[in-house]
Amino acid sequence: FYDESSELWESMWGEHMHHGYYPNGTLRLDHQQAQVDMIEEALRFADVSSVSRGVDVGCGIGGSSRYIAKKYGATMDAVTLSPRQAARGNELNASAGLGDKVSLQVADAMNMPFDSGSYDLVWSMESGEHMPTKPQFVNELCRVTAPGGRVIVVTWCHRDLAPGETSLSWDEQLILDRICDAYYLPKWCSVADYKDLFEKEGMEDVRTTDWSDEVSWFWLAVIATALTPQGLTGVLRAGPKTLQGALVMPLMQLGYRRGVIKFGVITARKPNAAD
User: How far apart are CA 15 and CA 98, in angstroms?
Assistant: First the structure.
């Protein structure tokens, strides 16, 4: 899917392949700046003031990696399952003069080729929804985090279940199933599920928030872009998987409006060895 669609996304939206941040759900027209602000707000929420070495897990074409490398002078590794994304991202690294600071490679986020305790920032911007086994995903994020390091996960979730509920309603699940089929996603979990997983890994200062309101305008903007002549032509040229994804974009908006989709942010700190 991303081998097919990444070039189109970059041509329409630039290097950041994720939601934009719209403060208090207020419409803004600078959508690419809203995407940059999403990175800034996630870093601010996690109280990140410096980064020496980071890893971008599910990196797309490396927009976050380059931004963090420039902001903090950090060295960034990044992983994606898409060879096209990795190749394009490394081209952009070189063009930005960051070829010695940022490196994208094809690797499995569930089993990364990095030593344990390697990174003071472990970053996952809208990749968690792609991970088939959430406990294994969280375990791997925690494994590569250095003592005292910080994990940030920004991801699509379903709503927290109410006391006594064991599942979403059938019509809520139907919305998610259709989205998952179109975007090749596995089963989702809730923000509360992520919090529980990080706490079970022994992480500290586990904090969560819901930015569903703050991303409420994003899918309307994406739909509007897709309906332009350039967007329509690009979707048709990109291929059937991209077209399939475009056709369910209104369901993302519906899911947010109904409250079944939540835009979750989770951060946690790995204890220092002396803690």
Answer: 15
Tokens for 142, please give them.
């925690």
Phi-psi region of 148 (alpha: psi -120 to 50; beta: other; left: phi over 0): left
Q: For the chain, what is the mean pLDDT?
A: 91
Rounded Cα distance, 134 and 218, in Å: 25
Task: Tell me how far apart the alpha carbons of residues 78 and 74 are, in angstroms, rounded to a whole number.
Answer: 12
**Rounded Cα gap, residues 229 and 232, in angstroms:** 5
**Can you tell me which residue has the tokens 């040229």?**
237
Residues 8, 201 contacting (CB under 8 angstroms): no
Cα(170)–Cα(52) distance, integer angstroms? 46
Question: Cα–Cα distance between 270 and 146 in angstroms, integer?
Answer: 7
Rounded average pLDDT over 12-17: 77
Q: What is the pTM of this model?
A: 0.91
Q: What is the 3-state secondary structure (H, E, C) of the chain?
A: CHHHHHHHHHHHHCCCCCCCCCHHHCCCCCHHHHHHHHHHHHHHHCCCCCCCEEEEECCCCCHHHHHHHHHHCCEEEEEECCHHHHHHHHHHHHHCCCCCCEEEEECCCCCCCCCCCCEEEEEEECCHHHCCCHHHHHHHHHHHEEEEEEEEEEEEEECCCCCCCCCCCHHHHHHHHHHHHHHCCCCCCEHHHHHHHHHHCCCEEEEEEECCHHHCCHHHHHHHHHCCHHHHHHHHHHCHHHHHHHHCHHHHHHHHHHCCEEEEEEEEECCCCCC
Residue 248: its pLDDT value, please? 81
Could you give phi then psi for residue 130, rounded to 5 degrees? Answer: -90, -10
Q: Is 140 left (phi over 0), alpha (psi -120 to 50) or beta?
A: alpha
Q: How many residues does the structure list for the chain?
A: 275
